[in-house]
């Protein structure tokens, strides 16, 4: 069975990467997993009293350069389960270009050369 985790990835200058993920469990405890990208083999469970500290750790990871990859599923061994379909790429609207009529500008330059 797969479990949803909030996943973060740090990519080194040489192209290798490591992942760090966490999730809140039903009993209030938090599970953290980490390891090389795609295979978070190491794990630890923290009691509910450590939740605030976990949130500070998330902020520290982001400050170090980790990138949030969103909610992802891991199997029991910590292997990343790739979604059947890639999530849609966020659409970035292109700003409208203003209609500018440059012919109305007087530049005091003789433009009969062309």
What would your notes on this structure say?
The chain has a 6-stranded antiparallel sheet, with helices on one face. Helices cover 12% and strands 37% of the residues. It has one helix spanning 51-64, and strands spanning 3-11, 17-24, 30-36, 39-46, 67-74, 80-81. It has a domain at 3-81: Single Sheet (q64v53_bacfr protein fold). The chain is elongated and about 80 Å long. With 114 residues, it is mainly beta. A hairpin with a 5-residue loop joins strand 2 (17-24) and strand 3 (30-36). The chain contains 1 helix and 6 strands, in the order E-E-E-E-H-E-E.
Superfamily (CATH H level) name of one domain: WGR domain
Rg from Cα: 25 Å
Strand order of the largest sheet: 4-3-2-1-5-6
Average pLDDT, all residues? 85
Q: Report the β-strand fraction as a percent range.
A: 35-45%
Q: What's the level 1 CATH class of one domain? A: Mainly Beta
Distance between the termini: 72 Å
What is this entry, summarized?
12% of the residues lie in helices and 37% in strands.
Task: Fill in the keyword field for this structure.
114 residues, q64v53_bacfr protein fold, 12% helix, six-stranded antiparallel β-sheet, 1 helix, elongated, 37% strand, mainly beta
Topology overview:
Elements: E1 3-11, E2 17-24, E3 30-36, E4 39-46, H1 51-64, E5 67-74, E6 80-81
Antiparallel strand pairs: 1-2, 1-5, 2-3, 3-4, 5-6
